Please model this.
Amino acid sequence: MGLCDLMSMAKPNIEVRDKILARIGGKELANCFQCGKCTSGCTALKLLELKPHEIIKLVNLGFVDELPSSDIIWTCVTCLKCVQRCPQKASPYHVIIALRNLAVEREAKVPESYMKAVSQILETGQIDTYQKIVTRNMETVDRERLKLPKICQPKESFQIVFMKTMEEKTV
Amino acid sequence: MTKIGVYVCHCGINIAGVVDVQKVAEYAKTLPDVVVSKHYMYMCSEPGQRMIQEDIRNKELDRVVIATCSPRMHEETFRRAVAEAGLNPYLTEIVNLREQVSWAHTHEPEKATEKAKALVRMGIARSRLLEPLEKHRVSVEKSILVVGGGIAGIQTSLDLANAGFPVYLVEKTPSIGGRMAQLDKTFPTLDCSACILTPKMVDVVKHPNITTLTNAEVTDVKGFVGNYEVTILKKPRYVDEKKCVGCGICAQVCPVKVPDEFNENLTQKRAISIYSTHAVPNVAIINSNYCLRLKHGKGVCGKCQEACEAKAVEFEERPETIHAKVGGIVLAVGSEVFNASQMGELGYGRFKNVISNIEFERISDASGPTGGKILSPKNGETPKTIAFIQCVGSRDKRFHEYCCRVGCMVTLKQAILAREKIRENVKIYICYIDMRAFGKGYDEFYTRARDMDIDFVAGLPSEIHESSDGSLYFDVYDKGTNKLLQIRADLVVLGTGLVPNKDLADISALIHASRSADGFLLEAHPKLRPLETAAAGIFLAGACQGPKDIPDTVAQASGAAAKALDLLSRGEIELEPLKATVEEDLCSGCKICASICPFLAIEMTTDVIDGKERTKAGVIEAMCQGCGLCGSACPTGAIKIQQYTSTQVITQVDAAFAERCVKGGK
Model:
C-alpha cells in the first residue's frame, strides 16, 4: 500500500519527515513546484550526488531514512543563494541544516572537516586560520602591514556560550 | 400577537452534513411566538419557496426566519418570495448556518448544532422587532463613464454606444488603444494586433454617442447608482485637437529628444510628437517636462508653432475641467508589466540584451524602433540565440504569487515570431516551470511551437551572467533530462507578468472599490458577479480585475457593457431602504456624523425656533448607503439605521446568552 521506491524498496517515513518539517517550521516546503532554480544556481552542485530540488522532493514524499546518514547533506556550502531566489520560499537550505542537526542527534558520522572547523572556532573564535594575502605586485601582506589590530584568542566565556548553543541547537 | 415561521435549510449536505437540522427545527418550535418550524433540502428552490409562501398565506405568518446560507447569497431571493406571498419583504430574517456554522466547524457537529440553535434563537428575537419598510425609487441617468481606453474600454464603449447610450471614455495617455496597441501579433491566430485594433479605435472616436477624452483623468466621483457626478481633468496637449491634421512636421523641427514611452523607452522621440504611428486621435502632443518653450517661457524656441501650417500649436492651453452626470461607471484601467529590475539575479536593467516581453513586442512590431526586425538592443545585430525565461515576477512569493495567465502564450508567440523572422539562423530556448496553454486553440499553438525547432528546458536559471564578449550565459537544470545545462545567448527575453496598475490606489480611493490580496480590483462575487464591484453601478472590465489575455478581456468588456445596459435601460431603480434616519428631538447638532460619513449623505440645517438657532442633521436618502457609521458615532443616539436599530441588535445579543426564552425553561 502507498508509495514505494522500486529501486531500493524503501517506503516513506512520515514520522521522520514530520520531525524535519517541524524543525524548519512553516509549511513552505510543500510549495516547491520543482522549477529547478535552486539546482541551477547551486554553488556546491558539482559535489552533490543528489540535487537540491531532489532533496526537497525526497523530503516531501517522505524518503528521508537515508538522508541524515548520507554524505551529501554536508556538501552544501550554505551560500544561501537558493534561499534568496526560491520563488516559493521553499529553499532546500533549511532542510539541509535540519538534516545535519538530525544527523548529529543520531550520532551519525560527521565529516572530519566539520569537526575540525568546530574545534577551530572553539580555539581561535574563527572558522578558518587567518592567512596572508598576495597583491598584484606579488607582495605578501599580513595584518600587521595593513595596520589591522591583532587577533586575540577568544575568552573562556565564549567557549562556554558556544558549546551551550551547539547543544541547544542539536536537541 | 406575532406569528413567526422558522425554516431550516439543509443546503444539500452543506449544512445538514454537519448541523443536525432536524434538531434545530424542533428546537425552534419550543421558542415563543413560533407557530411553524420546518426543515427542507433546498429552501431556495422553487418548492422550498412555495412552502414558505403557503405558510404565510395559510398560517398568517407575520415574520419569517430562514436559517440558510449567507444573506449575501439568497437574502434577495427570499425577500422576493415573501413579498409575493403578501408580506412586507423586510420582515424576513436570514440566519447564516452555512458560512458561519457548517463550513466553519466541519469537525465539531455537536457544537455546531448548538451554535446553530443559538443563532436561530437570536434571529427569532430580532425578527420580532423588524419593521416593514418600503423601497426607495430613484431615476437613472442614461449615460455612462468608461475609465481606460484600452481594448476593454473600447469594447465596452462601443457596445454601450451602439445600444444608444451616451458614453464618456476617459484615457490617461494621449491615445486610446492601451497595451494591445503595443503588441505585434496576437496568439493563438497570429493576427496582427494593430490590424484588428485600429479599426475599433477609429470607430470609437467617430461614434456620435462616444465622447473620447484622451490625456485626461477622472479626479472626483460623487453620488450613487444611477446618479454619479464625475469630474474629469483634461490635461493640456498644447495642440488644438480640432486643427491638428497629424502631419508630423512639428516633430521634424523640434530640437528636443525625449524617451518614447510607447516604444518602452527603447528609442527617443521629440518633445512634440504624435504618440504612436496609429494613435487615435492622430494629433500631436507636447511633453511639457521637456519642451524648451514651456519650460523657459516666451521667446525661446517655438519652432513647432512656426512650422505648423494648420496653426494648431497653442502654448497657452490650460487644463480643462469637465463635469458629467452618469448613471454608472465601467472601470477598464488595465494592468502594467512587471518591472524585472526588481529581480536582480536576472540582470534586467544591468545587461542591455536582457529585455522584457513587452520590449520584445516593440522590437518585433513593424511600427517599432527596428521596423519589425528582431535585433539586439546592445549592438543592433540579429541574435543567433534567443533564450526566453518564464514566470518572471509571477508565481513568485517574493513578488506576485499569482500566475500571470498570459506569459506562456506570449513567449510561445514570440518564439514563433522569432523563428519566422530569423528563420533557421537562430536557436531558440524556452526555460519554463510548466507550460500553461489553457485557452481555445492554445494547446494547438503550443504544439505548433514545438514543431518549429524550439528547445524547451524544464527549469529556471538561478542567475544570468554577461561574458566579456557581451554574450549572456546561464546555468539551468533541466528536469526532463536530469542534467545541468549551460545556455549561452545573445538575447534573453524575460516572461514578465502582468501586475496591478499603480493608478488603482487612487481609483479605489475615489470610488470606494475594494482590492483583492493580489492588488487587483475586487469583484462582487468571484463566480456569480465577476463584472460588478460591491458598489452598485460600478462595473469591471479587463485586466484591472486580474491578469487577462485579449479574448478574455473582450469577453469581460462586453459582459460589463451588458451589465451596465441592465442599469441604463431602466428609467428608475429601486434602492434598499436600509438608510439612516435622524430623530430630530435627540439631535444636538454636533456634526460628528457629517464629518465621518463616507458618502457625504449628511446635511446640516439650521432653523430658528423661538428666536434660538438650532442646527440639526438630516440624511440625504439617495446618497445614504446604510453603512451605519453615523449611527455608531452619534453620541446622543439620535441616528437610527433602519433594519439595524440598536434595540434590534441588543435584543439579538441578549438572546445569544439567554436560554431563558425557551418555553418552560428555567
Observations:
- The mean pLDDT of chain A is 86.
- Chain A touches chain B through 21 residues (CB under 8 Å).
